[in-house]
């Protein structure tokens, strides 16, 4: 049995750890509220963009723009969104596991795909397993601005436009609720009919200058950048929720451990007192 000093030391260290996890839970909760607010504030912009795409692309059914035209897939592009830090449960591992499974099923050679990674966790995981990374972005802010991710979003779009890849998919953790996040795959390029026509079409009566094809060449890359940015906001909300849940579980486990150790400490202390009393009684009897 461990000594009283050892048990007392474990109790004190566990209490300190509980203070840390409780503080991290509160920080993640605050970040989650901000992330949810950012996502909601971004929705009106996306709705207007979708209205414009609906009005233009919907009328241009035979558009020759490469972002609207499916082509034979010879090389796939994967944009993977993970966290920079740990302590978020299975947030990153579930997304990476899904990516690895899909690559194993669909590809027999690394020449058939390119990987772009957001987050240090994804970079370390893939490099340690020998996967080649096309481009990466680490130290992504907890509340990312559009400017902070625009460069890597543009790089992904350029890969498609220059036909280095024939499709672009995003792997991320979709925020469902505080207690649930769901590993999800979303195809970004070429734009599906749903992506290019899910607006309300309120701009259908507008006249556009110059011609619609010229407008599409400008607005479609911006729209895809917005899709990627919106997905990153969603993934960040999921990350904060996962970390908040993980820290709450850690705090609860620490409380249970402290209770168990306290009980163990009391039993050991009682046994030690009983032993001391027995020794005193025995010594007294020996003197008689």
From TrEMBL:
Database matches in InterPro entries: ATP_synth_F1_ATPase_gsu, ATP_synth_F1_gsu
Primary localisation category: membrane
Keywords: ATP synthesis, Cell membrane, CF(1), Hydrogen ion transport, Ion transport, Membrane, Transport
Compartments where located: Cell membrane; Membrane
Keyword Membrane: yes
Protein's membrane topology: Peripheral membrane protein
Tree of life domain: Bacteria
One Pfam family recorded for the sequence: ATP-synt
Presence of the UniProt keyword Membrane in the record: yes
SUPFAM superfamilies: ATP synthase (F1-ATPase), gamma subunit
PANTHER family: ATP SYNTHASE GAMMA CHAIN, ATP SYNTHASE SUBUNIT GAMMA, MITOCHONDRIAL
Subunit structure and binding partners: F-type ATPases have 2 components, CF(1) - the catalytic core - and CF(0) - the membrane proton channel. CF(1) has five subunits: alpha(3), beta(3), gamma(1), delta(1), epsilon(1). CF(0) has three main subunits: a, b and c.
Record-stated family: Belongs to the ATPase gamma chain family.
Role description: Produces ATP from ADP in the presence of a proton gradient across the membrane. The gamma chain is believed to be important in regulating ATPase activity and the flow of protons through the CF(0) complex.
Protein name stated in the entry: ATP synthase gamma chain
Gene: atpG
